[in-house]
Amino acid sequence: MVTPFPTGKHPTATASSCKNAANVIIVLLILALLQVYNNNELAIASAVKEAHLRCNRDGKIFSGEESGYENVGSKHECCVQCTTPRKQCCLVCSDVAPLREHDLLMASMEGLTHHVMETFQSGNHTAEVKQSHGFLKERAWEGNSHIGNRPAQATFYYDWVRSIQRTDNVHRVCEIGMNGGHSAVIFLAGLYASQKNSGIHLTMFDLSAFEYSKTVEKYINVLYPGMFTLHAGNSRVTVPKWTEEYAKNGVYCDVFSVDGDHTYEGALIDITNAAKATRKGGNLILDDMNPNGVTRKAFDEVVRDGILGDVRCVEDVEIRVGYDNRIDETNARELKISWCTATVI
Ligand SMILES: C[S@@+](CC[C@H](N)C(=O)[O-])C[C@H]1O[C@@H](n2cnc3c(N)ncnc32)[C@H](O)[C@@H]1O
Description:
Blueprint: H1 15-56, H2 64-67, E1 78-81, E2 89-92, H3 99-121, H4 127-133, H5 135-142, H6 151-167, E3 172-176, H7 182-192, E4 201-206, H8 213-223, E5 228-232, H9 235-247, E6 253-258, H10 264-277, E7 278-287, H11 294-304, E8 308-321, E9 333-344
Parallel strand pairs: 3-4, 3-6, 4-5, 6-7
Antiparallel strand pairs: 1-2, 7-9, 8-9
Helix pairs in contact: 3-7, 6-7, 9-10, 10-11
């Protein structure tokens, strides 16, 4: 801000000092007007910046300018650039939900974790069960358990499923891998937020073998009554069985999320079966796609076989995961995560 008079000097009350004071007032008025203009400019600039920031804020998610992606108009500006193939867009800015909506989504992820953990912890379990089933926290911390504490990935899934819904009809999302129900809630929340589409359904395939699995199933059913079905059992059996039964009536998945068995063999079977359960032109989204991992190897093979095409991956996104929750930095660890999408040919 401008100081009207130099500090330490007191002007004397002469005609010239009155003239000076009038000049100062005019200067101040001009400055005030400039400030209003500047504020407007700043507001516009910061809105633009926020659009970039919200794409950038968790880990290295890329914005148009930084990525070098060629803009095709601001609405279609690339917000999340794929790392494979480079220079392709994985999400445009107009597909990205407002920052506050993302925050609410992440808050609901915390709530879900706490509900599931508390329900489990209050149960009378043996030490063995406690150890193996308390892993919702431990494994989430290791990066293997759910996407609810990975904002970059969680918000991507949310925005991505809605971006497809905007241009294509998405009624049925199928998923292998429920665990704590985080990704299921993300899909349902994303689709349900849009009034465009009624009759949405999430068809889940999971072993349902954890003490808290029933709690999760109940939780999702309360949030989205009649919109969630769990097929308990090994996905190698349940997915083909479901496809056989439903395809007869022309029912297929529009979107399929694969996040179950993370061994090479298990992933190969799941990805192949998921592609068969999904309609032609439908979409798959796959977790744990780090470029050198075994699940990625399985995915690449299915692509090479010509079953899936239009592959888009976001790789090696760095995140920090706190042990107790997303915010607490105590014992936080750094992880690199990757995910891919593809279309069924
Ligand atoms: C990584 S977690 C899923 C996380 C969830 N998609 C999320 O992000 O919120 C993997 C889940 O797949 C289940 N699973 C592993 N192998 C399976 C199989 N062969 N059939 C069905 N479910 C399986 C596990 O029990 C676990 O619930």
